[in-house]
Design goal:
elongated, 3 domains, alpha+beta, 348 residues, Enolase-like, domain 1, Beta-Lactamase
Length: 348
């Protein structure tokens, strides 16, 4: 994330900036001095407040969309608000219960847990939710299962030490019967023991050659497909939910901005960068506007956090929406969901 220098403003200016942002977050409209006077209760006239708002505009924290209109916070103004003026809001007991219930009873499939977390984040926030499945550079396998769909098609299921289960459909060059498929399954899982797919493949090829046997073409094909699963790109590990929620936000009535959002959800490179911005610590990370990442969607904000399992393998999840988000509430929502998700993964 790029460093952004913040201005030094006095207490009265901070109170007025906070009032402008709070009102803007509620109504999505330019904020006038009279509204600020009621909200801030400073005991000064609207004229004095207008002067302070003009000063805040001069230093880039507010802007006026057109003459005689009220002011709106800039990206810089929102960043100052988040860093210095934001008050965290807790979740209700009901919201916490919903999150816990959604992430129960799924078993050991980390992929399903992450998808459920995305769904509940989108449901409660009313925004789009994102998550990246955990991965490990070693890609250590616990189990490979070849499941027959029909005589010439199988599913390769790879289960990793992170708890992640990935599947891929494979159409074979030759038919296979159940007995042969079981022999291959048993043979592969005897060899795995926390090896990577590449290591498993190399060991089996060497053993076959030493025994002067012909390498089984089906086993080679299955391992090739399993290896391609273990080396999926980060974009393939991203889950998205609630994208339709953004259509309800006034900021995305602009067709060009909506197109940018849809492109980001399609290629996922921007979403990966957002999720990878999550810090390694206990706190959540807030991204505001296009200046904080190399690629971003103008007018958007994001709140992201990491979750993890016992082996220290990390994934990340968060909320993407307009810059005008209730950051105080969404920070708590993302942080709590990440904590519950981490606990569920460790329990599985």
């Amino acid at each position: 994330m790029k460093d952004i220098k913040e201005p030094d403003i006095n207490e009265r200016s901070q109170i007025i900036l906070r009032a402008v942002v709070d009102i803007y977050l509620e109504c999505a409209e330019p904020v006038g001095s009279r509204s600020v006077a009621k909200k801030a209760d400073l005991g000064v006239s609207p004229a004095t407040i207008r002067n302070v708002m003009a000063d805040l505009e001069d230093i880039g924290l507010l802007y006026q969309p057109h003459t005689s209109a009220g002011r709106l916070p800039t990206e810089k103004g929102l960043r100052f608000y988040v860093n210095h003026l934001l008050e965290r809001k807790g979740l209700t007991p009901q919201e916490k219960e919903v999150i816990k219930n959604e992430l129960e009873g799924i078993g050991e499939d980390v992929g399903r847990l992450v998808k459920r977390a995305v769904g509940v984040l989108a449901k409660i926030s009313g925004q789009a939710a994102l998550a990246m499945a955990p991965s490990t550079p070693q890609s250590e396998l616990l189990h490979v299962e070849l499941v027959k769909l029909n005589p010439s098609k199988i599913i390769v299921v790879s289960v990793y030490s992170s708890g992640l289960a990935q599947t891929r459909h494979v159409r074979l060059r030759q038919d296979i019967d159940e007995e042969r498929l079981k022999r291959i399954n048993d043979y592969l899982n005897e060899k795995i023991k926390y090896m990577s797919i590449k290591e498993v493949r190399r060991a089996i090829v060497q053993e076959m050659q030493e025994d002067k046997r012909v390498f089984d073409s089906l086993m080679e094909e299955a391992l090739d497909k399993a290896e391609s699963v273990s080396s999926v790109s980060p974009e393939e590990m991203v889950f998205v939910g609630g994208a339709v929620n953004l259509l309800n936000q006034p900021e995305f009535k602009n067709i060009n901005r909506l197109k940018q959002i849809l492109r980001a959800f399609e290629d996922k490179k921007t979403l990966v960068e957002i999720l990878e911005a999550a810090g390694d610590g206990d706190s959540v990370t807030i991204i505001i506007g296009e200046k904080e990442l190399t690629t971003f969607i103008p007018g958007c904000g994001a709140v992201v956090a990491t979750y993890e399992e016992d082996q220290g393998v990390r994934g990340s999840l968060g909320i993407l929406g307009p810059m005008r988000m209730d950051y105080g509430k969404i920070m708590s929502l993302v942080e709590y969901t990440a904590d519950v998700l981490s606990s569920r993964i460790k329990e599985s």
